[in-house]
Amino acid sequence: MFVRAYLRASTADQNADRAREDLERFAEERGLKIAARYVENESGAKLERPELFRLLADAQEGDVLLVEQVDRLSRLNAEDWNRLKALVGEKRVRVVALDLPTSHQLIQGGADEFSARMMDAINGMMLDMLAAIARKDYEDRRRRQAQGIETAKTKGVYRGRPEDEKRNAAITAMLKSGQSWNSIIAATGCSRSTLSRLAKRLREESVAA
Questions:
Q1: CATH code where residue 26 lies
Q2: pTM for this one?
């Protein structure tokens, strides 16, 4: 059995490694060793996450996908969550989350077939519930943010999110030098949406020149 740790943060400004010690401690306390770590800065609300899919591609039947919290794995809508669950089911990977105690028993073994099936069913139900809660939290925060922006615009005080000019200048220089998007993302931790926006700006500047 391989334990594969998945660490995710939403933006490059957050640190996806912050949960590493907790995951390492959890595994060590149970006599396990984390065989591989997959770290990325992507939103949990989108299904397209390269490192998560690399983990699933690497995984073999019976491997453990270890996460700090269920919302690190999913803030997906119902359709995308079902797609991800189906893929996990096809690979027969066991999802274990530190904030989901029922999942901890999946790595203990020794249970008879009936008990194991019951635990799988209970754990699946709990995963669904926590994934739904994580999605609702995401939508609530987005709605409150939109309301706050609209209020600020009405009052004439909205300025938008400040641009990281130093980082974006470095990314633009990399684009000009012909570096690939993947290498830029790996070097800077920026998102593809940010890279796309800067590439578009660079093209527009070239046309204007």
A1: 3.40.50.1390
A2: 0.69
